[in-house]
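Researcher: Here's a chain I'd like modeled. Treat it as a single chain, no partners, no ligands.
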Amino acid sequence: MIQLEHISKRYIGHGGSVDALKDVSVHVEKGDIYGIIGFSGAGKSTLIRMVNRLETPDSGTVTVDGHRLAELSKAELRQTRRKIGMVFQQFNLLESKTVFQNVAIPLILEGADKEKIAARVEEVLHFVELEDKKDTFVSQLSGGQKQRVGIARALATEPTILLCDEATSALDPQTTESILQLLKRVNREMGVTILLITHQMKVIQRICNKVAVMEVGQIVEQGSVLEVFGHPQAEVTRRFVRTVINDQIPESILDLVHGELRHYRIERLKFIGASVKKPVISEICKTQDLEVNVLGATVQEMQDSVMCVFILQLFGPEEKILQAERLIDEAAVLRERVEV
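Model: Modeled as a single isolated chain. Structure tokens:
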């Protein structure tokens, strides 16, 4: 659906040059909710603006729905852009216009007749649950309502792709949750592929099925959300994951652990998807005759799956602990030995 191949982009200014993107490749398949996460300055906004050619790469190719954007005529590019909606962090609405007028703007620009405009605006306002606000001026709306208007406007032209540029960053947590649920409905019920950028790992956790992590203009890690959350490789990814899944041992617990005289090992276990149903900890206790102390545990939902993290302290002979490790590995549970 969206293919970004070896994209590079350099900006040159009075202070010198900045490499915003360096050989970045991302593939978004039809039906994905694909998240790109990174701190400010990572290159996320530049990357997403390549998809509708608001930015042009210095090198590399951008292909959308089978069309290479660089090869399209102006008329063909306009036609392609009609199938790409965009939702912005600061809403980008006309405050002095009504909700209806704001949502109608893209339809007016493409020359649709009044009856079609009225019908489509009514339809998308009903979808975002703002039909009762159609004659209200945007300046009178809350932040969450404004973002719903922004989403309705983006959906007005019946896009197949929706780009979201930090769409929830200006919202409080409760409103953020409602907007994320709305985006999931857009993806599920309208079949719209969503590419979003964010610096909030909670957003990735709640609605994305795939994620790419950016740092200083490069993709440092990408894959399914379960893979990346379950086994993050890059340090920046681990920092992001810890904002939603705290798998560290508290200092107060470490103090107690350090005072332990018996032989032990500490293991971090991650149960993902089907492995959640496996009674591995119970099996260890029964078959290996080990004493197990749970130092920490957490459960997180991700899309339609679950991740459970346990930090275990295993007491017993070394050979029994090694057998327990093999049992854990055979059960396809992610395991990491923790050195303290």
